[in-house]
Amino acid sequence: MGNQPFLTIVTVTFNAGRFVGRTLESVQNALEKVIDKSSVEYLIIDGNSSDTTLSITKQYSTIISKVVSEKDNGLYDAMNKGIAISTGKYLWFLNAGDEVADENVLADLLKELKTNRDVYYSDAIIVRENSEKVGLRSAVTPHTLPENLKWQDFALGMKVCHQAFIAKKEIVPFYDIDNLSADIDWEISCLKSSKTVHYLPFILCKYLLGGLSTQNHRRSLLDRFTVLKKHFGIIPTVFNHIRILWRGYRFSRRNGKYW
Hints:
9 helices; 4-stranded mixed sheet; 7-stranded mixed sheet; globular
């Protein structure tokens, strides 16, 4: 690409042959609505997959800027590689199984990015492996979505779905590869470094249930405590975890299990 792309989309994969096609197809469909395709850089960061992931990826070579496939130290190590080699002004992580919400999203997003805010965010549609829609994340989980997001809003956990959060590369940190809740830490750090934050008036993505934190739920909860203690202090974090438990209990009593 001759000029710097405006947006870099990073998709991390590892033996994701069952799901990566839906991600690639959604990006391809959305790119068709973008007039200047050089404004979007699309990176695939693969952990040396041994299944059909890379062969499926090759079918979408016309929309992919670069594929890196090598052994890594897990999801967040791979995401750090994406940050390191990205050349776009903004970063958007859309991992294997996640999808661009609809074909108009990229064109609409690029218009919004021209307003030059530091962070953009929206809601996400949660879907199951069979593509069944669970619902909007803000409706089917206790995480309501504010229209004036601040880092302090994360006192009770992951306020914004990671796949619905876009930040300027110049303010993003690298992920802590040893913490399963590094995505919360990353978003809080981005917001702390930002001067302007903008709520997008459209849904950015479909988020596939069953990610790393869901698969390792107990450890992710402990790691979340570590992240929130880092940003809010020990006493507020202990108090807020009591609030998290009570909020989750009340929500599940009214609405049923949400994960």
